Amino acid sequence: AQRPNGLLRARYGGRNVVTMLPGAGIGPELMGYVKEVFLKGGIPVDFETVQIDPKSDNNDDLKYAIMSIRRNGVCIKGNIETQSLDSAIFSRNVVLRNELDLFVNIINVQSCNNISSRHKNVNVIVVRQNTEGEYAMLEHEGVKGVVESMKVITKTNSTRLARYAFELAKNNGRAKVTAIHKANIMKLSDGLFLETCRNMSLNYPDIKFDDMIIDNCCMQLVSNPHQFDVMVMPNLYGSIVSNVICGLVGGAGLISGKNYGDHYAVFEPATRSTGSSIAGTNTANPIAMLNASADMLEHLGHKMHCYKIRKAICETLNENKIHTPDLNGTAKSSDVVQNIIKHIVTYT
Ligand code: ADP
Ligand code: MG
């Protein structure tokens, strides 16, 4: 079950088994669409579904989910909620990424021509640190009314993240890597991050390297996103920048995100939204989760099935123009899914 790059995948009798974590909000209905598309498309992947009770005061469900991913190597997930009032129960999404050492989150944002959006022809890859920085969850109230929160940046994680960004740029024919930071204020932590990226760039003379401060970056993204190619950044900036870019090209319902470590791969919608307010209304855009499932198929080596899903999504959005309300359309989630299936079954 070992892939050349070291990432694991379970395979029994020609079929892959992957872990499915539906999570909260619109997660379960989106997973239902993924399963329907896989079934109708004859895609040889079985799902091991693990439900995580948001209200639970222990992490037994989460531990089981993590064990399942360790066994299968691959997971598709919705956003997991943590409603426990016990402050010792941390965000389960964060714990899962940390336990599996999924040190990088990658979002490839490409705009779709026939969707109403702020900008056309955007094509940016965000490479985000996924396990440390502001997400260290080391907070305490040492003195009443004074809360401290630790931001952790390590040379080890910054180095492997920077290497990942430059390798990705090289292997995808990208011209430029931009490091995003706030090293003018956080001189030590973001300073280390920036210096590590700059040092890594010396190994890649064919790829241009520059850097930008996060606040200017947000302004530049909104006014001229075309200047960006590959962007690399610490965890919290990555969260914000990912959401800004997704917003530029059509919102939370379109783009998928990939989480990788040395051993495991987890696929999900890029903005990691829960979508509680629209759950159960048949209005959620199913595309982001279907794109995540296509990324997963690519990772598993099912290139043809991946291609078919992406092609059917493209035809549904661009030619048939079947759009859910988030894209100013009137279609139901199920209309989009049925149209995608209609295409997939005709491809030979
Ligand atoms: P978070 O979980 O970070 O709070 P939300 O669930 O509030 O994020 O999502 C942000 C916004 O994006 C909400 O308005 C939500 O309805 C919308 N949204 C998220 N996912 C989708 C989707 N798949 N289709 C349509 N709208 C979505
Ligand atoms: Mg919300």
- Given as residue ranges, the uncertain stretches (5+ residues, pLDDT < 50) are none
Radius of gyration based on Cα positions:
20 Å
Distance, first to last CA: 28 Å
- Count of helices? 10
Spatial shape? globular
Q: How many strand units?
A: 13
The helix/strand order is: EEHEHEHEEEEHEHEHEHEEHHH
As a percent range, the share of helical residues equals 25-40%
| Category from helices, strands and their pairing | alpha/beta
Q: Give the strand content.
A: 15-25%
Kindly state the mean pLDDT as a whole number?
95
Give structural notes.
- With 348 residues, this protein is an alpha/beta fold.
- The chain contains ten helices and 13 strands.
- Strands 1, 2, 3, 4, 5, 6, 9, 10, 11, 12 and 13 form an eleven-stranded mixed beta sheet that branches. The protein has a two-stranded antiparallel ribbon with strand order 7-8.
- Strand 9, helix 5 (189-201) and strand 10 form a beta-alpha-beta unit.
- Helix 1 (27-40) packs parallel to helix 10 (333-344), helix 8 (287-300) runs antiparallel to helix 9 and helix 9 packs across helix 10.
- Bound molecules: adenosine-5'-diphosphate (ADP) and magnesium ion.
- The site of adenosine-5'-diphosphate has 15 residues, from loops.
